[in-house]
Amino acid sequence: MSDHHQREIDPVTGYDTTGHEWNGIKELNTPFPRIAIWALLITVVYAVIAWILLPAWPLGRDYTRGLLGLNQGDMAVAGYRDISDWRGEWLAKMETGDFEVLRADADLMATAMPAAERLFADNCAACHGETGQGGPGFPVLSDAHWLWGADPEAIAETIRFGINSGHPDARIAEMPAFDWMSREERAAVARYVSGLPEGRDGAGVAADLFAENCASCHGDGGEGGLEIGAPSLRDAAVIYGQDSRTVQETLRGGRAGTMPAWTDRLSEAEIRLLTLYVAGLAEAGGEGAE
Amino acid sequence: MLKLHYNLEKVSMGLVVGIIVAASIGGIVEIAPLFSINETVELPDDLRPHTPLELAGREIYIREGCYACHSQMVRSLADELDRYGPYSLAAESAYDRPMLWGSKRTGPDLARLGGKYSDDWHVAHLIDPRSVVPASIMPSYPWLMRPLEIGLLRDELATLARLGVPYDEAMIEGAANDALAQSRPDSDGAEAVIERYGETVAIRSFDGDPSKLTEMDAVVAYLQSLGTLTNAPYELLAEGAE
Amino acid sequence: MINTLSLSERRLGLVLSVLLAVLGLVMAAAARHGAMAVHGGMAMVLGVALAVKLAAALDDPLPAAGRASRYYDAPTRFGIVMTLIWAMIGMGAGVWVAALLYWPEATPLLPWTSFGRLRPVHTTGIIFGFGGNALIATSFFVVQRTSRTRLADSVSPWVVLLGFNLFCLWGVSGYLMGSTQSKEYAEAEWYADIWLVVVWVTYFILYLRTLARRHEPHIYVANWYYLAFILVVAMLHIVNNLALPVRLTTAESFPIWAGVQDAMVQWWYGHNAVAFFLTAGFLGMLYYFLPVRSGRPIWSYRLSILSFWGIVFFYIWVGSHHLHYTALPYWAQTLGMTFSVMLLVPSWASAGNAIATLNGAWHKVRDDATLRFMFVAAVFYGLSTFEGSFLAIRPVNSLSHYTDWTVGHVHSGTLGWVAMIIFGAIYTLVPQISGRETMASPRAVEWHFWLAVTGTLIYVVAMWNAGITQGLMWRAYDENGALSYSFIESVRAMAPYYLLRTIGGAMFLAGAVICALNCRATMRAAPIEAADRPLATQPAE
Ligand code: HEM
Ligand code: HEM
Ligand SMILES: [Ca+2]
Ligand SMILES: [Ca+2]
Ligand SMILES: [Cu+2]
Fold it and tell me: Does C35 touch chain B if contact means CB atoms closer than 8 Å?
């Protein structure tokens, strides 16, 4: 049997074999390489040191806490506090202070805008687009037209509590459904509204219907600017679309878009920072459109 | 030692026993204490389980493999607190079977997602992510607009209750109705959902059409519930930040 | 295959096939619709097909006398064919999901073509289908040769192989239909999990019974590893998959573990799926095929002992390194980290032992692509275990976790180590069980080797870059204390790497296709009787 094989010397390494053989496979009786022992020892020492310093071994209902007394949650919060302090050097100025003054501070703006850009990209761009260009159902922020007014305080208010967001202080913007109108009436009004941006208003049944039902919110002739959340219907910037079909849909079902409230997610300073950023988008975009 | 082993290798059952013993220790030492050490999971008083509609959404989240790209675990690292919000507590997933902490962030973490976006946005994003985020590489899920199967919900709640999730008899019996009612704010059942699951539950027509209960309703209800089942992590962070 | 069975074995096979068909029918009838019904149907079709085949072959000529003095290689041959089929499925799905991350709309908007459903098809198909079949097939081959005996039984190898492949098929087709438990690497539903336990117990008994018939008092190292693979995978699988079905007639179930305990159990399982499925079993493979192919003795028996017990003991502790900084208690993370570092020593002891074994055979490594596959495997085994121990250190993991660095590490292990050692083993044993000296096309082996190595390097280097870029972008702060990058910028930065990965993966897949064609040609040309070789007297075949 193979157990009785002769031990033999391997000519390449000079070590002898163990004397076993399996289907031609043999093993050398090479002594433990020192380096393996040392490596094991070093890693064990490393582990023991870690166990002494850090929380490590469970003991029934408790565990060893380690000499350093570390708690990962507290460490993370401390690190977060450090970052907040670091940022606070300039961000704190955003928390209060007049928007015009802040905006005039060029150094502050140079520091703040990259941070605002990142905040906008992570939180707002999903709806308003990366450059504030908006999208179907989400208003453009890079134009000079504001649903609730161009005053930065008004913009901040919108960001803070949102629109139709469910927050108790949210702005409420509801476009009622005009389902009581006949189909024909809605089509006529829609045709009328879709012509407004090109300046085709004219008179007639549709214009009368508009004046009676819509002007209270959208302003005379759809001028907008009443700062109650109803958009101007005369400019090119639309939320849902101002082609006749979309407008008919708007009239039939009504609209109430939701802008989330950010006050629980972002700090007051961040909200005001974003306000400046958004206002800046409008200026840049507004110029571009001119 | 070597001699011992020399003999051990001659006995297959010896190897078997040796392997079983050597490979059992680590698991026992690391898993058993997670049940016996109280501070491992400290259940806050305000923690609520998922509503039936959210649970159905969770099952769809699992079915579609969203967990392959999204984590639901804000790690205890300063930059993650900064980007996503308070770090995740063990208690938050105490009723989660299975947990969905994830292991890859091809997309962002979702643990603090609830309330970040509107229902409309989620619907648009799930149907075609690139319509709202042009650079997105997330798949489109247009088929979520199909009707939601609610036949199994009652048994699902019952099974979870047997495993220890605090669903009471009324919740189990009302599961299917509650799922419908949560997506119909004007229905009679809506009150009952609030009564059973608390004020923080969102009662809305998530997909915008209250007349049909779709898979989209369920997924969006689930997504809007993420991070809102308890306020504990937010309180902890606020305390720590002072 | 059937001509290798005796009449009583054919009858037993017939009974088992009918039982399988009945089981499938019951499942399908009870579930009525959904994944479980489809899976019942699959079992039924398989059972009926096997029954028909066996019934038709009852009167076929019986195997020649003296069967006991031959190896039973027909199951190995079948297992290798399945390995290659699953390689196509698993790697094909891998390239597909890789492409989807670059072209999200590469394939039509059907539920089953979406990333989240295909990804587990890739992981299950490749780990269980490709890796598992290779392990089972080679374990049968190796245990017979190192024990110089025939498999203890002729029916149970088929139960193991067919049953295991049914499990893989259930898993993969379930995910496509949206049926999954979502536990990574254990996604298959509860009834499939139970089925696998039955298959696995059969496997274990067969393995032990064969070892019991060995003609060499000592059990060879390769078998220690195969044993550890079989035993520990059973333990992990059962504990991690404990679940309560919603109804006995539906696929849905809820795990008995919840939250943080579920996470710990999941990664205790998940990491050791790596350790005992993707490592221990393949070390068994390496320990047989490397010395055989190189004609060299194992460099150090003592090092084998150290690395074996080190691996078995240390590995089981380290699962918590998948949960660093999470809601898992810190103490468990410390244990995971420290044991991962200690684990490096036995891991490198195995890799070193393998490479040192090649001393005196370097000219063969140069000339023989098959041996080169094994050499590269040993090197990547060393690389990926070093990387693994490094990634397990908490601060490193704070950067790497959730990123493509993990994916890079995974594929340096799976492409560089697991797949390479499988190919080395296949190229060694396929000619043998086909009664030939060499593969049908040795040149194709050479081509395969270079495609595989280049593909792996492109894949792994791309993912290292991707992962480290991602990790750094997520945590980068500008000089004013503000995060520098939004999440979507990190998504955009991945595009070139995802493209490169797709190319590297396609090269690797192309190599595997060449391998499959080459094996087909080799097996086709083989004389029918070649499969079951006479027990070797001395020395190696
Ligand atoms: C000493 C040996 C090894 C150690 C200590 C180790 C450690 C690690 C670590 C720390 C991670 C990252 C966990 C995370 O951040 O999510 C990981 C992931 C992984 N490793 Fe290893 N690794 C080792 C060897 C291997 C080998 C040889 C393979 C493959 C053959 C492998 C396959 C994997 C897989 C598949 C994952 C991904 C798990 C997942 O998230 O789905 N590892 N490993
Ligand atoms: C043709 C070659 C392959 C390609 C193109 C490929 C591609 C991929 C892709 C794209 C992913 C998903 C990564 C993500 O979610 O970001 C993945 C994951 C994975 N692959 Fe592969 N793969 C290949 C071969 C293999 C092989 C041969 C194995 C195992 C033997 C393997 C095991 C895995 C595992 C375990 C994961 C999960 C990793 C994790 O969760 O971290 N792959 N692969
Ligand atoms: Ca993973
Ligand atoms: Ca499973
Ligand atoms: Cu691991």
Answer: no
- C358 and C419 together in one domain: yes
**Containing structural domain, residue C448:** 73-524
Give the up-direction half-sphere exposure of residue C398: CA atoms within 13 A in the CB hemisphere: 13
Return the bridge partners of C534, or none.
C70
**What is the number of other CB atoms lying within 10 angstroms of the CB of residue C294?**
21
- Do B86 and B198 fall within a single domain? yes
Residue nearest to atom 13 of ligand 2 (CA): C407
Domains and CATH numbers, chain A: 34-63 (no CATH), 87-172+258-284 (1.10.760.10), 183-253 (1.10.760.10)
Closest chain C residue to the Cα of B93, Cα to Cα: C259
Residues of B in contact with A259 (CB under 8 A): 118
Domain-embedded: residue B47: no
Q: Please report whether residue C493 resides in a domain.
A: yes
Please give the model's pTM, rounded to 2 decimal places. 0.96
Ligand 1, atom 32, lies closest to the CA of: C410
Whether residues C114 and C38 fall in one domain = no
C56 and C96 assigned to the same domain: no
- Residue C156 is assigned to a structural domain of this protein: yes
Contact C117, B65 (CB under 8 A): yes
Distance from CA of B34 to the nearest CA of C (A): 6
ipTM: 0.95
Strand C243-245 to strand A58-59: parallel, antiparallel, or no bridges (unpaired)? unpaired
Tens of pLDDT along chain C (541 residues) come to 788 899 999 999 999 999 999 999 999 999 999 999 999 999 999 999 999 999 999 998 888 888 888 999 999 999 999 999 999 999 999 999 999 999 999 888 999 999 999 999 999 999 999 999 999 999 999 999 999 999 999 999 999 999 999 999 999 999 999 999 999 999 999 999 999 999 999 999 999 999 999 988 999 999 999 999 999 999 999 999 999 999 999 999 999 999 999 999 999 999 999 899 999 999 999 999 999 999 999 999 999 999 999 999 999 999 999 999 999 999 999 999 999 999 999 999 999 999 999 999 999 999 999 999 999 999 999 999 999 999 999 999 999 999 999 999 999 999 999 999 999 999 999 999 998 889 999 999 999 999 999 999 999 999 999 999 999 999 999 999 999 999 999 999 999 999 999 999 999 999 999 999 999 999 987 665 555 677 765 444 4
CB A99 within 8 A of CB A154: no
Write out residues with Cβ below 6 Å of ligand 2. Answer: B 68, 103-104, 106; C 91, 94-95, 97-98, 119, 122-123, 126-127, 131, 406-407, 410-411, 414-415, 418-419, 505, 508-509
In order, the DSSP letters of C480-513 are TSSB---HHHHHHHTHHHHHHHHHHHHHHHHHHH
- Atom nearest to C282 CA in ligand 1: 30
- Domain range for B10 is 2-40
